[in-house]
UniProtKB/TrEMBL annotation:
Organism: Xylaria grammica
Cofactor names: heme
Name of the protein: Cytochrome P450
Lineage of source species: Eukaryota, Fungi, Dikarya, Ascomycota, Pezizomycotina
Family note: Belongs to the cytochrome P450 family.
Pfam families: p450
Gene3D superfamilies to which the protein is assigned, alphabetical: Cytochrome P450 (1.10.630.10)
Matching SUPFAM superfamilies: Cytochrome P450
Length: 532
């Protein structure tokens, strides 16, 4: 019995577990010898998995065919890199990956320029379950992603650490997301009230009283205000009388996320060159956040937020950890990164859908009316069945974290993707990067039905999901802010549909999704609204 490792064959560029003749036309025997000599000993745990997941048939030559590679004959990964850059430029990376996964089955290998180890892309729930949960210890955040985030989030961030350091970050942050805070909706309510007031003002100021609004830009300001209020006890107040440095903070934050996304996606190449602009943004943002930390530390009794008894302030909880200012600053910027654009993304896409689906608007408004209360509690929002279906559906079709990545920290096994039918386990060498795309998985017709690409909240009536539905990720690194985000988004939608009875699309261009760290809408979300 021979198991061949998952390095690309030097001649054919094929990768996979294989026995028997190499498929390359030229240099066949030589390349095969070379590959076979490199056979790594299969780790004991991998052997256990293989035995459990497959059968002895796995070792038969017929099933040991290489897993698909894409594109073919791309040993160095240059074609893949160029394709990625081109697709990103055309805002079509998700669609390109979807087509590749459709063409190759649900898992394929590709070269990663300029590395030797191949990468894997998968939209197979079993593989994702292994990566995020059952074989969690075998995978970590990839080095390239950590390096891209470091200049902005720092080395203590939950998004730049693995292993014990990550556990420590999570242990510090977790208690701050307690039930009391989640159910304290007053903070969000203040900022959504300002948003509604701004919409009324814009309508009144427009010539025909029917102003065109870019809800994406408005949601972004609102979430910046509400998350800063939640974190520091003081809002950036971009929707009100913000000081100039709040605007600068917002702008630098946007620019930094854009740069980080490019660096993470294009790999090590972009890290060769330093980016003084990014360094400057980072310096400014750290100084901005540190000011709040000092403010709270320096004035424990007089600080403005403490006048508001009962108000939850994330920074207060964080300071209880006794960590240094630098660590606290890393955590604050991380929560800002985690919470702001994700929420903006879901709301923008949701209101884009609502602008072309008056039936859904009417059904949510009926549910609001049936509640019979103007001010919903957290429990009320949780129990609004249709509203929650709508949110789940928005998160399914446009998960803000549309594409995600991990890296094998030891030799391991994925349960599916090998063999002629793609159903055999595959061996994965340490250092291999794995990309999974919730955006693509959520649109699989075999998992979500023939209408998987349609926005249909009613599907959630009977749908039970596990690893095929990943808007908040899964396993030990599942989103900490999930309940907080869902409660916020439910309240914002509730309030807006209480205030406005119709939303009308005001943009003829086809919607284009832009993939950064999070998904956004390239042309924004242009609508007009009718007051209730
Ligand atoms: C609709 C809104 C949100 C979505 C879709 C979302 C999604 C995600 C996803 C997919 C991850 C996993 C990232 C990875 O491991 O690669 C994540 C992690 C995380 N999220 Fe969220 N998130 C949302 C809102 C929030 C909010 C509002 C907060 C906090 C205020 C938050 C805090 C976090 C944190 C701290 C992590 C890191 C968890 C860890 O690595 O252990 N998220 N989120």
């Amino acid at each position: 019995m021979h198991l061949v490792c998952l390095r690309p064959c030097l001649v054919s560029g094929r990768i996979g577990i294989g026995i028997g003749p190499c498929q390359a036309r030229r240099g066949q025997a030589r390349s095969q010898r070379r590959v076979v000599q490199n056979i790594p000993p299969l780790p004991r745990s991998a052997q256990r998995d293989l035995a459990a997941a497959a059968t002895t048939a796995y070792y038969e030559p017929a099933l040991a065919a290489a897993a698909p590679t894409f594109p073919e004959r791309d040993l160095l990964g240059l074609r893949y890199l160029l394709q990625t850059a081109r697709a990103l430029k055309q805002n079509a990376l998700l669609q390109t990956r979807q087509a590749a996964l459709d063409a190759t089955g649900h898992t394929f290998f590709h070269g990663v320029f300029p590395e030797w180890n191949p990468g894997i892309t998968t939209n197979e729930p079993d593989n994702i379950k292994a990566t995020l949960s059952t074989r969690f210890e075998d995978w970590a955040l990839p080095g390239i992603r950590i390096k891209s985030f470091l200049p902005v989030l720092g080395k203590h961030s939950i998004f730049t650490t693995n292993g014990a350091e990550w556990q420590h970050s999570r242990a510090i942050l977790r208690p701050a997301f307690v039930r009391d805070q989640i159910s304290d909706l007053a903070c969000v309510d203040r900022h959504v009230a300002k948003l509604i007031a701004r919409i009324h003002t814009a309508r009144a100021a427009s010539a025909d009283g029917n102003a065109v609004l870019d809800l994406q830009a408005m949601f972004s300001m609102m979430t910046t205000d509400s998350i800063s209020d939640f974190m520091f006890g003081q809002s950036t107040d971009l929707q009100g009388a913000a000081p100039p440095d709040s605007y600068t903070f917002g702008r630098y934050f946007d620019e930094s996320m854009h740069k980080i996304a490019w660096r993470a996606r294009l790999g090590w190449l972009t890290l060769i060159r330093s980016d003084p602009e990014l360094d400057e943004y980072s310096r400014f943002m750290r100084a901005f956040v540190t000011r709040f930390v000092h403010d709270v530390q320096g004035n424990p009794e007089t600080n403005s937020h403490r006048g508001d008894k009962g108000k939850y302030v994330f920074l207060d909880e964080l300071l209880k950890s006794g960590e240094s200012d630098e660590v606290i600053c890393d955590h604050l910027l991380s929560i800002f990164t985690a919470g702001r654009d994700t929420t903006t993304s879901v709301l923008s896409y949701l209101f884009f859908e609502l602008s072309r689906r008056p039936d859904i608007v009417a059904t949510i408004r009926d549910e609001i009316r049936d509640l019979g209360r103007d001010d919903p509690t957290w429990e009320d929002l949780r129990n609004m069945r249709y509203l929650n279906w709508v949110l789940k559906e928005a998160l399914r079709l446009n998960p803000p974290v549309a594409s995600n990545q991990r890296e094998a920290v030891r030799d391991t096994v994925l349960p599916k993707g090998g063999g002629a039918d793609g159903k055999s386990p595959i061996f994965v060498r340490k250092g291999t990067s794995l990309r999974y795309l919730p955006w693509v998985i959520h649109r699989r017709k075999d998992l979500f039905g023939e209408d998987a690409e349609e926005f249909r909240p009613e599907r959630w009536q009977d749908l039970r999901v596990t690893y095929e539905y990943l808007p908040f990720n899964a396993g030990p690194r599942i989103c900490i802010g999930q309940q907080f985000a869902l409660a916020q988004m439910a309240l914002i939608t509730f309030r807006l549909l209480q205030a406005f009875k119709a939303i009308e699309r005001r943009d003829d261009r086809p919607p284009i999704q832009k993939l950064g760290i999070n998904l956004s809408m390239l042309y924004g979300c242009l609508v007009s609204v009718t007051p209730a």
